[in-house]
Structures are given as C-alpha cells and as structure tokens.
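Narrative of accomplishments. A recurring question from our advisory board has been how the design workflow behaves on a single, concrete structure rather than in aggregate. To address it, we present the structure tokens for one chain from the evaluation set, followed by the sequence designed for it. No filtering or post-editing was applied between the two.
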C-alpha cells in the first residue's frame, strides 16, 4: 500500500501567504486544514495498523469479521461483503481465503444454487471478536476522549462536508 508522506510541521500561515503571491489559487487556510487532515489521518491509520497487528489481524480482515459479527446468526454472500466493505470481490476472496484457513469463517454452499455460498463466522471467529472488541471499543473511545459529545458530532458533520470536496481531487 502506498504511504502518504506528510511534512513533520504544517507550513506556517505566513509562508503559505508568501507562496500565494506566486500561486493565485493557493488558499493558505485551505492548505493548512488539508495538511492537518492528512497528517492526523495518516497517524490514525498507522495507530490502527499497530492496534490490529497486536490482535494478529489487519484492517481488511477486521472489517469482514465485523460485518459478519453484526448479525452472527445470518451469513452473507461474498458480493454483499464486498459491497459493504467497499472493496472488490477479488479483495474479499483473498481476505476470506485467509480467514477461512485460520478457522475464523466458513463458506457454506447454498442449497438452491451450489455455486453460491454464504459466509459465516465460526465459533472461533465469534470468540476472536468477543475477545478483541472490548479492547477495540475502549481504544476508539480513548481516541475520541478529548472531544465532548457536541464536538464529536461536529467532527462527523465537518468530515462529511470535506468528503463532498473529494471530487476536486478526482476531476481530470
């Protein structure tokens, strides 16, 4: 996976204003906010990678297990998992292969169409999630502990506003 390289320090507002003299589209406060978002986002992803590694898993594997754990008595198709995880079916297949070989999930052929299958957590998979999730939820609460309830809601709203601007990066 490619890693974003973010400078140690966010450029000072004055330095950005000086650059704005050379680049008319440079908005200093937008650059500061974007670099801060990238920096905190990168640090957050790195911390989550370490967290998942402590539990012997990865983010992708955890997402699949979490989706299955939301309703552990009902299986899901690989295509449902891919859609819900927002990844390709090939990616889900690779994740399922590993999870199955570790005994955390099982593929159950459907009686109506033996080519189709339902993916279910095994008892080992349920036990894994039951052991991991208390620590996971505690750490997520710790990550957000510096924000009160209103600030958390505001953060969510602001992040979704930023999300609407992603089109600016994807346009040709």
């Amino acid at each position: 996976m490619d890693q974003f390289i973010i400078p140690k320090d966010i450029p000072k507002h004055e330095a950005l204003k000086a650059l704005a003299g050379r680049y008319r589209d440079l908005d200093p406060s937008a650059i500061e906010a974007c670099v801060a978002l990238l920096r905190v986002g990168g640090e957050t992803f790195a911390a989550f990678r370490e967290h998942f590694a402590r539990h012997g898993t990865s983010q992708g594997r955890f997402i699949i297990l979490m989706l299955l754990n939301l309703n552990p008595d009902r299986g899901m198709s690989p295509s449902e998992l891919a859609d819900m995880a927002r990844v390709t079916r090939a990616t889900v297949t690779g994740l399922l292969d590993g999870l199955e070989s570790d005994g955390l999930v099982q593929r159950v052929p459907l009686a109506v169409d033996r080519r189709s299958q339902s993916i279910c957590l095994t008892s080992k998979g349920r036990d894994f999630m039951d052991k991991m999730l208390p620590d996971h939820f505690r750490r997520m609460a710790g990550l957000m502990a510096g924000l009160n309830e209103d600030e958390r809601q505001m953060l969510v709203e602001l992040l979704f506003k930023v999300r609407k601007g992603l089109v600016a990066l994807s346009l040709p």
